[in-house]
């Protein structure tokens, strides 16, 4: 019997009401857009499938309509367990209106959980998430009242006198994934994909739980015609093969196909355009001063991306950039291309990348600073009614040998004047970001102190360090007033030991800093 069928046929055959569906993908890369869009279409036409549980690791969507936004209907989805939420506002809406039971767990934990599910284990046992909002002594990863009335997915256990978290496995009945080509028996290759993601582990997890796996491909070829060395997903895991329309099988949401993303070719890299001298460049310059030769690095999206630009401008060599999606080396893409990399040295599976991260493989990580508090805690995951989600943030920040947070001191209309070796505040931001207490603990300063992990918090006007005693102000920008521009714009008093050092004046000049010399 042929496994090849339309998306609608596969859904009606293998996705009954009440299904627990695991989706693979990272933003738009490796997400089965044809199938998720058809799920929406079938539901709107028939009211089925309904009462679905949606389970996923990396965020999947364009922040508007695509990806997991296709599942954002009341009655269609009644339970959501995911790693990153910001790209799926329609799922966010269900969560915030308490119309679906909603959980946020670390992206890396969910990716690793697929592998543990496949092996028949009871869950993931790890230190990752201790003292953060996923710790059941805080919030247990629960985002709304429906989840708080639902089952606990995380518990604290003790092994050999040490605390660990046990993340419970979740029964899965359907896996929805994608590949490049499938042969008539379902053996699949990934050669045009920018990542491999968690596809293999997800398929194994669903299959070993007695579920069904649906794969979206660019095309189907005859059995025996694919190079065995390129087959990354065996046909024994696959129940249905869906051939996608080209517009629903783009390499990423921004790019139809770029062979430099999939490692098929390498392209010459022009020097990155120099950043203009503003608050973002000031922060990136100060952060780049923390780089070490040959450092294995992770750059968060947004403000930290500027560190790569400064490294190129200054001629710093040896920095190896990695992404949570599994790329190592090269230049990570941004926007809705995020997750794929130009000229990557290697592309590995997402669970394996998080194994490396969780074990302390990162020398340094540069992440965003959305909210910070007096204990050195950071929140990047929840702001009032907005659920951003932690993504891989907890895995990365708890385990990197050194963490550097990067962000402006205030938000909402901040304007600065930079030049001549100093910085002036032209218009102060309307919202403080350095608070007495963050809304949600995505990074625990207390946990970092226990580990003696070096942590810096870099803004355009001040640099703080997490010490055994607490958050210490160690540098301020030349040209700013300590009382008016720093202390008056934060809700807690930092430790100040004598006269505060001035930030390097080269940071505030148009000329290169000479970091590569």
What does this entry look like structurally?
The protein is an alpha/beta fold and 517 residues long. The protein is built from twelve helices and 35 strands. Strands 16-15-21-26-32-33-34-35 form an eight-stranded mixed sheet. A seven-stranded parallel sheet has the order 4-3-2-1-8-11-14, sandwiched between helices. A four-stranded mixed sheet has the order 12-9-10-13. Strand 33 (462-466) and strand 34 form a beta hairpin. Helix 4 crosses helix 9 (350-358). The longest helix is centred in the first third of the chain and has 14 residues, at 33-46. The protein starts with 6 loop residues before the first helix and ends in a 15-residue tail after the last strand. 53% of the residues are buried. The mean pLDDT is 96.
Helix/strand class = alpha/beta
Query: What's the end-to-end separation, in Å?
Result: 66 Å
| Count of DSSP-assigned helices | 12
**Oligomeric category:** single chain
Topology:
Elements: H1 7-14, E1 20-23, H2 33-46, E2 52-56, E3 77-82, H3 89-96, E4 101-104, H4 107-118, E5 123-126, H5 145-149, E6 154-159, E7 162-168, E8 174-178, E9 181-183, E10 188-189, H6 199-208, E11 212-217, E12 219-221, E13 231-233, E14 240-243, H7 279-288, E15 296-299, H8 306-314, E16 320-322, E17 327-328, E18 331-332, E19 341-342, E20 346-347, H9 350-358, E21 364-368, E22 371-373, E23 378-379, E24 382-383, E25 386-387, H10 393-399, E26 403-406, E27 410-411, E28 415-419, E29 422-427, E30 431-432, E31 434-435, H11 445-451, E32 455-458, E33 462-466, E34 471-476, H12 482-486, E35 501-502
Parallel strand pairs: 1-2, 1-8, 2-3, 3-4, 8-11, 9-12, 11-14, 15-16, 15-21, 21-26, 22-31, 26-32, 34-35
Antiparallel strand pairs: 5-7, 6-7, 9-10, 10-13, 17-20, 18-19, 22-23, 24-25, 27-30, 28-29, 32-33, 33-34
Helix pairs in contact: 4-6, 4-9, 7-8
């Amino acid at each position: 019997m042929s496994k090849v069928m339309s998306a609608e046929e596969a859904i009606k055959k293998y996705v009954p009401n009440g299904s627990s569906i695991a989706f693979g993908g990272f933003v738009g890369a490796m997400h089965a857009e044809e199938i998720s869009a058809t799920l929406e279409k079938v539901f709107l036409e028939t009211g089925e499938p309904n009462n679905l549980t949606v389970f996923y690791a990396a965020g999947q969507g364009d922040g508007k309509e695509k990806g997991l936004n296709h599942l954002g209907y009341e009655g269609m989805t009644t339970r959501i367990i995911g790693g990153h939420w910001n790209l799926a506002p329609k799922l966010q809406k269900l969560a915030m209106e308490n119309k679906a039971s909603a959980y946020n767990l670390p992206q890396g934990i969910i990716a690793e959980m697929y592998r543990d599910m496949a092996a028949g284990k009871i869950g993931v046992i790890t230190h990752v998430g201790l003292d953060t909002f996923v710790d059941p002594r805080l919030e247990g990863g629960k985002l709304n009242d429906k989840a708080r009335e639902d089952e606990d997915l995380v518990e604290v256990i003790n092994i050999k006198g040490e605390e660990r978290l046990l993340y419970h496995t979740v029964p899965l009945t359907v896996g929805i994934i994608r590949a490049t080509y499938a042969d008539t028996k379902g053996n699949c290759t990934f050669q045009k994909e920018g990542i491999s993601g968690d596809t293999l582990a997800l398929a194994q997890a669903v299959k070993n739980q007695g579920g069904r796996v649906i794969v979206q491909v660019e095309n189907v070829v005859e059995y025996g015609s694919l190079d065995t060395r390129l087959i990354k997903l065996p046909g024994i895991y696959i129940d249905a093969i869906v051939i996608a329309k080209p517009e629903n099988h783009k390499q990423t949401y921004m790019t139809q196909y770029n062979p430099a993303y999939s490692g098929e070719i390498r392209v010459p890299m022009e020097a990155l355009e120099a950043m203009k001298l503003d608050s973002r460049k000031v922060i990136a310059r100060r952060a780049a001063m923390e780089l070490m030769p040959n450092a294995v690095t992770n750059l968060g999206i947004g403000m930290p991306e500027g560190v790569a630009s400064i490294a190129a401008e200054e001629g710093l060599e040896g920095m190896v950039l990695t992404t949570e999606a599994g790329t190592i080396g090269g230049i990570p893409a941004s926007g809705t291309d995020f997750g794929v990399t130009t000229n990557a040295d290697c592309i590995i599976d997402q669970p394996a990348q998080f194994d490396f991260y969780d074990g302390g493989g990162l020398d340094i990580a540069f992440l965003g600073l959305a909210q910070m508090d007096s204990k050195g805690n950071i929140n990047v995951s929840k702001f009032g009614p907005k659920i951003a989600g932690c993504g891989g943030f907890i895995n990365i920040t708890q385990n990197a040998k050194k963490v550097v947070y990067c962000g402006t001191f205030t938000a909402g209309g901040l304007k600065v004047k930079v030049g001549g070796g100093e910085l002036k505040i032209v218009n102060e931001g309307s919202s403080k970001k350095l608070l007495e207490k963050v809304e949600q603990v995505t990074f625990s300063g207390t946990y970092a102190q226990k580990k003696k992990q070096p942590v810096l918090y870099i803004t355009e006007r001040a640099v703080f360090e997490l010490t055994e005693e607490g958050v210490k102000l160690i540098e301020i920008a030349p040209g700013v007033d300590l009382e008016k521009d720093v202390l008056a714009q934060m809700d807690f008093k930092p430790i100040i030991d004598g006269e505060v050092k001035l930030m390097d004046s080269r940071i505030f000049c148009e000329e290169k800093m000479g970091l590569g010399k």
